[in-house]
Amino acid sequence: MGDLYYHAQQAFIGIIMSTLLSWNQLADRALAGEIISREEARAVLRAPDQVLLEQLAAAYRVRRHYWGNRVRLHYLLNAQSGLCPEDCHYCSQSKISTAEIDKYPLMAQQKILDAAARAAELKAGTFCLVISGRSPGERVFKEVLDTVRAIKSNYDLKICACLGLLNQEQTQRLAEAGVDRVNHNLNTSEQYHADICTTHTFDDRAQTVQNVKAAGITTCSGGIIGMGESDDDIIDLALSLRKLEVTSVPINFLIPIAGTRFEEVQELNPRKCLRVLCLYRFLLPFQEIRIAGGREVHLRSLQPLGLYAANSIFVGDYLTTPGQAAHADWDMIRDAGFVLEAADGSPLEEASTLEPMALA
Ligand code: SF4
Q1: Are both 250 and 345 inside the same structural domain?
Q2: What angle (nearest 5°) sits at the alpha carbon of residue 178, between those of residues 176 and 182?
């Protein structure tokens, strides 16, 4: 009952705040480099559905200023799957998961090169090479470095490596091998982290991001929404990413996979996901914001609206779940008036004169 009253009260505050707030003022402040207040951030997340198109239109003003109408495509390869000693409650590759997934050690180099060729064929500018595990051992790490060099000499792709926790020496070696960026997600707020994982800490993750930055590699770090966290946790995650000056921010929406500890957690709908994307655009105005895992499952028919706040998506499959067909992604982007972006950041297609529909 107490909970019910609290949520009703919070929803009421959200509605009052959203009628008082001008979303365009939030966009103006984001564009001026100012940070919006916590109350305003809460109001973005708690606003009624009736104002969602206005929120998206305001978020698009910020997105357009930094990214135009271009959409970056990333291609992800799970090059080593499962068998991970960590206990991340959302992850089907964890030792505590009983999910039925393929489990395999690091793929042979040729198989990874074939996947890089596929990434280029699907018009992805970035190839994301992901391996499961807490942190790579020396043998696997050396193989990854060799493979990175081989990809770099064969394809015009940026490489993002996602290898778990990394120390300074490892990030330095990745930089020398030509890795363009390293992904390591903070996942959630510092406060909520112990509720999603007990085998490593939020600080461990933040330290890896700092090590990546110290090596001069572009930082990629984001989170997962829909794991039972509060609105303040969603806000705190964005503030932590802002403080760490992260360049690229993947936002995943939890797919509750059978066999994981969060298999029963179901708290997302497409409108909530869009509000989260708007909030992240206001708090992380010039960062590359990517709609990552859960896009098809949770945004469903509203996926194109997500592009008004985010400027990047994955094409192809995710770590252990399938994505929609690449041509469906290209069609979605073009139909809504956006254009694909090349690896160098330029528009990839003639259609660059198109503009997305105005929402408000
Ligand atoms: S998220 Fe990474 S570290 Fe955590 S269980 Fe999954 S593979 Fe292991």
Answers
A1: yes
A2: 100
